[in-house]
Amino acid sequence: MMSNKVPSWSLLLILFLASCQSTTVQRLAKARPAAVSPFLDQRWAMRPMRQRLPFHYVWATTDPRVQNAVASSTELYIAPVDLRYLRPIRKPLVKWEVRNGLIRTRETEMAAELRARIAQAFTRSPRFRLVTAPTKNSVTLALAITELTPTSVKGNAVKLAAKFTVGPLSGLLSVFTKGNIAIEGKFLVSVNGKSESYLQFSDNEKDKMTFYSVRDFQPYEHARVAMNEWGLQLEEFTRTMGNHQVKESSFVTLKPW
Description:
6 strands; 32% helix; 19% strand
């Protein structure tokens, strides 16, 4: 019978990682950058810009016409999320679970949720008022999901059991079980009747490190957590000055939900 006692080494490790603010540790433990798709026309010029935004790749215009147009805008329109650049699931275990009906794919549902959760973050924004269609005073936020891998429920059940037997080595199973979601986005504004990019970005997030979480058994809950964090980060970016650093989200959590 499996013991209900959590190994002390696991709690100590999670507590240590949760308190660790090292940028190097953050980058090593978080998801790797996803390839940037043709959704972003400035993808070849994108670079990390962590002094301002914690996303993997960012590009910002230097065109004063575009900058002035955004500065004078007071409204934000969030367009329906684009799924045309979504890549197939690559993890063999998750592919097997999807193929055998153990996990249902929910790309359209997750696209709608991304739009809604980003909008929720802007509901009390002092910078922009949300609108349901573009206006002469609005900036458009266009988004695309490029990767959406569900968390492996079967694999995480095995991993949880292994934590009580093989200890730290069970973490190696995370390579096969963790889900991820990668997005791309761009802020667009009309300048002399032409749509111009103000900012383009891409980011990838995966399941957070934890000893136990109900998210391990909910295939898309990791995506919802990432969506909420992206919304808060983007809202903070739009209402702060260029010398303000939007902080990176943590790669570890003690929350079981």
